[in-house]
Design brief:
The protein is mostly helical. The protein has two domains: 34-97, no CATH class; 102-176. It is 53% helix and 8% strand. The chain is built from seven helices and three strands. The chain has helices spanning 2-30, 45-55, 65-75, 80-96, 107-115, 137-148, 172-176; strands spanning 102-104, 122-127, 153-158. A three-stranded parallel beta sheet has the order 1-3-2, sandwiched between helices. The radius of gyration is 27 Å and the shape is elongated.
Length: 179
């Protein structure tokens, strides 16, 4: 009888210690304890919408921050741990969205978008004829994501797709890789 009671007490102590360890991990990552409550009024509208999405609640028709924060309060207490996981999930979703990169169909398309308009900064990956790209798709995608944060537009110019290129064109040296 005493042995069963001892093991039951030991079981609860182990559960308590595991909960504290997991909370310490969250505290280490965020700087706050996961069980501390957060006032929804102090959060931005975007963060409140993210919390509601994570809780599986619809917020359509709620245009004001006050209404959204009231819905968060009514749906339950908000802890730092839940806020941290919701923000992390939102960040992963935005990073997963691929930023578009222009694929130039030829020299005229390139000049039309880049040279003629001169409306910004471009990073163009030129792929020489009968060669592979310097950066593979995953690394190019990472590069596109990083530079697009600064308003830099990106594109890929594949010389194999432009049939008009010959030795008389200035682009020819770049496309044959002889520069």
């Amino acid at each position: 009888m005493w042995l069963k009671l001892f093991f039951l007490l030991l079981y609860f102590i182990v559960l308590f210690m595991l909960a504290r360890i997991f909370e310490a991990v969250v505290w280490y990552e965020t700087g706050v304890f996961a069980t501390q409550l957060v006032d929804p009024v102090s959060l931005s509208y975007k963060k409140l919408k993210t919390i509601l999405e994570c809780r599986g609640l619809a917020y359509t028709g709620l245009a004001e921050k006050k209404d959204v924060s009231q819905l968060v309060e009514k749906s339950g207490e908000l802890t730092h741990g839940e806020l941290y996981s919701a923000i992390k999930k939102e960040k992963e979703q935005t990073e997963a969205e691929e930023v578009s990169s222009t694929h130039f169909s030829g020299e005229t398309h390139f000049y039309e978008l880049v040279e003629d308009t001169k409306d910004g900064i471009w990073l163009v990956q030129v792929i020489a004829q009968d060669r592979e790209a310097l950066l593979d798709k995953s690394n190019w995608g990472k590069m596109v994501q990083k530079v697009s944060q600064f308003g830099i537009r990106t594109g890929t110019f594949n010389c194999s797709h432009d049939k008009r290129l010959s030795s008389s064109y200035p682009t020819w040296k770049v496309c044959t890789g002889t520069v």
